Amino acid sequence: MSDILNSLVQIVGEKGVSNHPEEIWFYSRDPGTLEPHEPDFVVAPRRVDEVRDIVKFAYEKSIPLVPMGNGMALTGLVRPLKGGIVMDMKRMNKILEVNERGRYVVLEGGVSQGQLKAYLEDNYPHLRHSIPDAPPGTTIAANVALHGQGRLTQQYGFNSDMVTGLEVVLPTGEVCKVGSCSIGPYWFSKGPSLPDISGLFLGWLGATGVFTKVGLRLFPRKSLRDVEVFVTDRADLVEDIIYRLTHTEMIEDLTIWFQPKPMIFKDNYHINVYFTGDTEEEIEFKRKMIWDSLKVHMDSKDGGFMGVGAMKATFLEEPQRSIAAFADVPKGGGFEYSGPISPIEHFAKYTAKVYELAAKYNLLFAGTARVISGGHAMMYGISFAFNRADKEMMNNVKEALEEANEFTLEHGSIPWKPTVSEQQMTMNMMDPNTLKIMKMIKKNLDPKGIMNPGNWEVS
Amino acid sequence: MEPMRTIEHGNLVHRCFRCGYCKFPSDYVDFNCPSYKAAAFDTYSSGGRMWLIRAWLNNEIKTGPRFADILYSCVACGNCTEQCVYPGFKDHLLDIFEEAKGELVGEGLIPPTVRDYFKAITVNGNPYKLPQNERGKWAEGINIEEYSDQDYLFYVGCVGSYDEVGMHMARNVGTVLKESGLSVGILGSGESCDGNEVKILGETGLFLKLAEDNIRQFNELGVKKIITLDPHAMNTFKKYYPEQGGRYQIYHYTEILDRLIRDKQIIPVENRITVTYHDPCYLGRHHHIYKSPRSVLKSIPGLELVEMRRNGVDAFCCGGGGGNFFTDINGSGEESPSRVRIREALDTGASIVAVACPQCAKMLTDAVKAEEMEGTLVVKDVAEILRESI
User: Fold this and answer.
1) Residue A70 at interface with chain B, using a CB cutoff of 8 Å
2) Residues whose CB falls within 8 Å of the CB of residue A217, separated by 6 or more in sequence, listed in order
3) Are the C-beta atoms of A173 and A149 separated by less than 8 Å?
4) Which residue in the set B15, B39, B85 is minimally distant from A331, CB to CB?
5) Distance between CA atoms of B313 and B26, rounded to whole angstroms?
6) Fewest 10 Å CB contacts: which of A258, A316, B103, B298?
7) Residue (of B158, B113, B147, B174) closest to B329 by Cα position
8) Does residue A135 sit at the B interface (CB-CB below 8 Å)?
9) How big is the CA angle at B61 (ends B60 and B62), to the nearest 5 degrees?
10) What confidence score (pLDDT) does residue A50 get?
11) pLDDT greater than 70 at residue B126
12) What is the pLDDT of residues A419-443, one digit of tens each?
């Protein structure tokens, strides 16, 4: 063991390695409900060559290696299921290049969402990226590695669709570039018009390599941003409401939320419609189009736009702090959610299931959905809060989410940032030839199976 | 077998979600938790510390040097309490850290530098292990009287009394106060440690003894109003002395200077300099005094005040708080808080970093040397800049 420690110290220096019980305990778990798995070492590299040397060393010695961003997936994706090394990437936090006219940024694998947001506001105030509502410490690289979503997902798709290039350290230690950056200095395309090999890495949860650099699309930041909230008490209408709203092609972000507390929100479905503009005229025009698109439901008295008032600042905040605050509703510091990527037509069905599970397991819930790519799909979030000091409640959350996952999988949804057991459930349902390709990819890229083992592991 | 431990706010510890808002300033531009910035691991952030305290209270980890290092690396800057998203919990973050350190003190398992600090205070009455009769040396030659029945007591504290940079600052403040005509006196060699760092480092017993002695002395002298050089002393006088019976009107010297300027008792003259101001945590985040020092600087004709990227409630700590000024748990490496902060000051284009705390003054002066910025950037306290402009 001390030989491994010495080798790691030689690569990243004494300060960048730990096998102290304190780091071992902390890096064995995430804030969700899943049981801990202890690493043997935690390392914090600062440079690509350090990452490369760590990976090479781990490969030579067949030591499991888990790359980690902020560890906020809540589904246990950075727990070292087979021990080994956890590699905390957050020290690699340089923003390397912004191509203003090409609207993309190139950054290191540990840059956080918050840091990029602040950097753009300071230096390129007319550009923005698709920031998720996860806490600001979550990293860009981890977010695209798990097909995260953000504030611009309704318009432009998954955040991983916004990747314009990657630099990946392969499990065998080679540093590999993906996309236009592999043939020249520009990072404008992750694939087209080359064969798109980014799919060997995006969505693989770090099981096929470590992202040391990411190219990411940026988008225009309009000077004005507003939100309207449409409310209905009919879950069965939400699908149609989304269809009508997305038809306008004027919406920045479209989210749906329902929750039993506080009482004023109970039994209603709130559809937050975000829109932007450079002038008041543009904003008011879009507002009118949005209102007009739902006239039929207002005329039938099935819903209407509510006064947003003091809540507007909360809704417009990026990231939305109130989402993390949900963890404190039972005064217990925890929540976890299942977020299947689903056909929008399942909204009402899934909503009924949320109520059923909350009642069955006696849990406090929050239901959310985010529309993806103009209405092709949605991320349907089933969230349960828990008290970390209450083991029974935590176990109930775990069981309720497992049941939710099973239910949504049966209905053709695919799990987002799935737990290991959800991955297995998914692979059990997968077309055998699809599974065969996944197995070939994993085996060829990671012949010793060292990268984030246990995840997307085809048996 | 590990002992069963309890701390006063132990029932809140599990409420930390470790979301990490506490690591950042309000606009997320960089990590704003100095110990996390200096270290490589999440364990050194407020959330990490909180989760480890929970594990430790549950006997999932044992008391050890690393755990002590993690606890004592906290500079008590208060960024986490500003940024935490959980009302009712956030107000007690620093209490929980202090209580855990108190347990370590009780178990005798504290870092050697913390132990040495307590020992020096107990034996010598100051962390510098210097004689008590040298406490008033800073005031030699500036004609400021011993406190008898003046309107204000000017309380200097350990750093202002013994540290070279602190003494320079005390002389500047003392001189400006005296020359303004303010009725002010000092305790000189009769002054004792205020105990702020003793308390934050977890030695409650020693703190109470220091507080009792100071309160007795202040009361015997009839002290009603105190001006402090050091925001750390101001903090303890304001927050903790009243519950021990010591109730006084407490001011930081920048508040008094601001008032004297407004009352035309001090009239600054032109001084064409570019200055950036570093907010001390115990003045800013802990007591929300952001305007007074800036008003003093802005009152100087020709002075251009330029703000650092992180300022006010988002200011990045110099790393000296929480007793780290004396215990140096976070070290002096490239990512040490004072060096990070001084690089941020350089980015403003200012030639002077204004400070309002002797601990910040010392930390940043040393950082200027470590970064080899002498000749480019100089650290001066607000009173010194004012004195050069009268």
Assistant:
1) yes
2) A103, A104, A129, A156, A162, A163, A164
3) no
4) B15
5) 8
6) A316
7) B113
8) yes
9) 130
10) 98
11) yes
12) 999 999 999 999 999 999 999 999 9
* Sign of the four-CA dihedral B353, B357, B362, B363: negative
Q: Do A135 and B67 touch (CB under 8 A)?
A: no
- Separation CA B35–CA B70 (nearest Å): 8
- Beta-bridged to residue B338, according to DSSP, are none
pLDDT of residue A1: 56
Confirm or reject contact between A137 and chain B (CB < 8 A). yes
CB pairs under 8 A between A and B: 110
pLDDT, tens digit, for every residue of A192-220? 999 999 999 999 999 999 999 999 999 99
Check residues B26 and A337 and name the one with the higher pLDDT. Answer: B26
Count of CB atoms within 10 A of residue A176's CB?
A: 17
Please provide residue A163's backbone torsions phi and psi, each rounded to the nearest 5 degrees. -70, 135
Whole-prediction pTM:
0.96
Q: Is residue B132 pLDDT above 80, yes or no? A: yes
Taking phi over 0 as left and psi of -120 to 50 as alpha, with beta for the rest, B20 belongs to: left
Q: Return the residue of B nearest to A336 by Cα.
A: B17
Q: Is A164 strand, coil or helix?
A: strand
| Chain B touched by A14 (CB under 8 Å) | no
Q: Is A295 exposed, middle or buried (0-12, 13-18, 19+ CB in 10 A)?
A: exposed
Is A188 within 8 Å of A102 (Cβ atoms)?
A: yes
Q: Does A35 touch chain B (CB under 8 A)?
A: no
Cβ–Cβ of A119/B43 closer than 8 Å? no
Q: Which residue has the tokens 């176990």?
A: A395
Answer whether A21 touches B (CB < 8 Å): yes
| Candidate from B15, B29, B42 with C-beta closest to A26 | B42
Per-residue tokens: A393: 């409640």
Predicted interface score ipTM higher than 0.90: yes
Q: How far apart are CA A417 and CA A414, in angstroms?
A: 10
Contacts of A140 (CB under 8 A, 6+ apart): A107, A111, A112, A113, A116, A129, A214, A216
What digits encode the pLDDT tens for the residues A306-350? 999 989 999 999 999 988 888 888 888 889 988 999 999 999 999
CB < 8 Å to A135, chain B: 19-21
Nearest-CA distance from B81 to chain A in Å? 14
Length in residues, chain B: 390
Q: Which residues from B are below 8 Å from A321, CB to CB?
A: 21, 85
